[in-house]
Amino acid sequence: MDRRSWCRRSMAAVAAFALAGLGGCAGVLGREPLRVNLVGVEPLPGEGLEMRLAVKLRVQNPNEVPLEFQGVSLDLDVGGQSFAFGVSPERGQVPAFGETVLTVPASVSAWAVVRQVIGLASGERRRFDVRLRGRMHGPGIGGAPFESTAEIELPASLLGR
């Protein structure tokens, strides 16, 4: 086989793989994103200076096919800064046009707590932007990402004003 023939065949193989990959993504591209809301946070036993939380998420699937998942990961930012992160090996399915509530254990570093307390004590912060992002991991390529944001305003009476 000469060099030109080998190059043409290699290019054809690369093009075929690229087209097959795009075809596999076509079904994913038409899918609506998951809707995920933070519905609860409960304390868990921690280690040393670490704080642990059970983060409860309501996951809604606005699609006509169920979403199977084999694990969940999340990051929770408060006031534009990383606050908590968590993973869960939980497996399950969010039904088509349905919802489910998941509990993901999350870790909060002592430094993240200190940053938030200083912001409250200094009176600089009364409003907090909360950003939740993560991924429902599953079979296939990468799973389904999610993101949710909210703004929380603390009442003046809580801050002693």
What's a concise summary of this model?
The chain is an alpha+beta fold and 161 residues long.
**How large is the share of residues in beta strands?**
over 45%
Average pLDDT works out at 79
In whole angstroms, the N-to-C terminal distance is 83 Å
Q: Indicate the low-confidence ranges by residue numbers.
A: 3-29
CA-based shape: globular
Largest sheet: 7 strands, antiparallel
Rg, nearest Å:
22 Å
- Roughly how much helix do the residues carry, as a percent range? 10-25%
What is the string of helix and strand elements? HEEEEEHEE
Number of helices: 2
DSSP, total strands = 7
SS-based class = alpha+beta
- How is the largest sheet built, in terms of strand order? 1-2-5-4-3-6-7
Fill in the keyword field for this structure.
single chain, 161 residues, alpha+beta, seven-stranded antiparallel β-sheet, 2 helices, 7 strands, 48% strand, disordered N terminus
Could you explain the architecture of this structure?
Helix content is about 25%, strand content about 50%. It has helices at about 5-30, 110-120, and strands spanning about 35-45, 50-60, 65-80, 80-95, 100-110, 125-135, 145-155. Strands 1-2-5-4-3-6-7 form a seven-stranded antiparallel β-sheet. Strand 3 and strand 4 (about 80-95) form a beta hairpin. It is globular and about 50 Å long. Residues about 5-30 have low confidence and may be disordered.
List the helices and strands and how they pair.
Elements: H1 3-29, E1 35-44, E2 51-61, E3 67-78, E4 81-94, E5 98-108, H2 110-121, E6 127-136, E7 144-153
Antiparallel strand pairs: 1-2, 2-5, 3-4, 3-6, 4-5, 6-7
